[in-house]
Design a protein that fits this description.
Elements: H1 2-17, H2 19-37, E1 40-44, E2 47-50, H3 57-69, H4 77-94, H5 102-115, H6 118-139, H7 147-227, H8 232-257, H9 279-288, E3 293-298, H10 306-326, E4 333-340, E5 343-350, H11 387-397, E6 401-406, E7 412-419
Helix pairs in contact: 2-3, 3-4, 4-5, 4-6, 5-6, 5-7, 6-7, 7-8, 7-10, 7-11, 9-10, 10-11
């Protein structure tokens, strides 16, 4: 049974791919049926009799012509219907009794119904039904009420209705297939969008981690190199800070990259994402690197939504890193975290007054001073930095606002206003 169904499916698929072969087979089948039907005598002594008469040569020629026309029924349905209808009318008028040439017109009418719209189908169907049935009733050699005439009426009506039903079903199936394909495309686009958003988020995290810790390592390494000969104890302390900063960088990198692991991969870190709860530890690393930082908090000690908590931490981390890198050795920084209604305001200020200014368009610290060792062409100090861009993307993703720019009298100011009811759907 399975092999039979498989063979039928293959045959159906082949015929669908080769419609001309299917129409040729149909034309041959209709030809055979009409030839056999032309040998039947409908009005025999004891009812219809087969073989009681022989069709005239004229009828055989008409049968052959209308059968050949059916080969083109898909490409030119209206022309085929007109041709077969005219030859059927001619046979109904001349034949006595008429050969079943009208069978070809019925098939042509079905094709018109399945290939055109509903109004066209019913207009053409009504016209064909009227012409063929009226011709058989008024010009036939039998009374108008015979069953052959009523059969023409019934078959033409059913052909139009069947063609319209097939067309409607085909349109319905096509619509369902189109909706399924559109839904599949939408799912793929949504998946690509989510992947792109996740890549941007991970890129921001990696930038924040690397920029912060590598900046601290750079400062402490410079201190160690400067005092190595004269104050070895201070150099050892600076190297210890380098070691601690590098260990923290590796831990955060491991936690971030662990998000990319698949199921079955080695176990990923399970440490929670950093937030304002560890703000003091973050500030301590900057103080150890030589940057005085003051912290003021008025956020009631309540933990904000995780997305807001992480964004506030990363903004402070990136802003202080930029102060460390660009504001000069004598700079100080102030950090404030204040809850105002349904928002959390995070502000980082510095009073950097180094003589050399960051080139115009600096992404991390536009217009702010550069440390003496900074190279204006460096990708982080020049136009290639991504610090402010990453902060702005974080804040925008949560529906907040970010402002950053030079302060009057010197220094730089970064302020982020984050809604405590974030777009992530988390509440306080």
């Amino acid at each position: 049974m399975t092999s039979l169904a498989s063979g039928f499916a293959r045959t159906q698929r082949w015929l669908r791919e080769h419609p001309l072969a299917l129409d040729g087979s149909l034309a041959v089948t209709v030809l055979i049926c009409m030839v056999i039907g032309s040998f039947a005598e409908p009005y025999g002594e004891h009812g219809p009799e087969f073989g009681a008469r022989t069709p005239e040569m004229r009828s055989v020629v008409l049968i052959a012509l209308v059968s050949a026309a059916l080969v083109f029924r898909r490409s030119r349905p209206m022309c085929v219907l007109l041709f077969t209808g005219l030859l059927s009318v001619a046979e109904l008028i001349i034949g006595d009794p008429a050969a079943p040439v009208v069978m070809s017109a019925v098939i042509a009418l079905y094709t018109v119904g399945s290939r055109t719209d509903r109004p066209t189908t019913w207009r053409v169907g009504l016209l064909a039904m009227t012409v063929l049935t009226g011709t058989a009733m008024f010009f036939g050699s039998t009374p108008w009420y015979t069953q052959e005439n009523l059969g023409i009426f019934a078959w033409t009506g059913m052909a139009a209705a069947a063609g319209d039903a097939v067309r409607s079903r085909r349109a319905f199936v096509d619509a369902i297939r189109e909706r399924a394909e559109r839904a599949e495309r939408t799912r793929e686009e949504e998946a690509r969008r989510r992947v792109a958003e996740e890549r941007l988020r991970i890129a921001r995290d990696l930038h924040d981690v690397v920029a912060h810790h590598i900046a601290l390592v750079n400062v402490q390494a410079g201190v160690a190199a400067h005092v190595m000969d004269r104050r070895p104890d201070q150099a050892k302390e600076a190297l210890a800070h380098v070691r601690e900063a590098s260990r923290s960088a590796l831990n955060e990198l491991r936690a971030t990259v662990g998000l990319l692991r698949q199921s079955g991969d080695p176990e990923a870190p399970t440490e929670p994402a950093p937030g304002l709860a560890v703000l003091d530890a973050l500030v301590t690393t900057f103080r150890q690197a030589g940057l005085p930082v003051e912290v003021a908090r008025a956020d009631d000690g309540a933990r904000p939504p995780s997305a807001v908590d992480l964004a506030a931490y990363r903004i402070i981390q990136e802003a202080l890193t930029n102060v460390q890198k660009h504001a000069g050795r004598e700079a100080t920084a102030e950090v404030s975290v204040i809850r105002v209604g349904a928002t959390l305001e995070v502000t980082v200020l510095d009073n950097g007054k180094a003589p050399e200014l960051c080139p115009a368009g600096c992404a991390d610290h536009p217009g702010g001073p550069l440390p003496p060792s900074a190279d204006p062409s460096d990708s982080e100090s020049g136009g290639g930095g991504h610090g402010l861009l990453g902060m702005r993307e974080r804040v925008t993703a949560l529906g907040g606002r970010l402002s950053a720019g030079p302060r009057y009298g010197g220094g730089f100011r970064v302020q982020a206003i984050l809604p405590l009811t974030a777009r992530t759907g988390e509440n306080r």
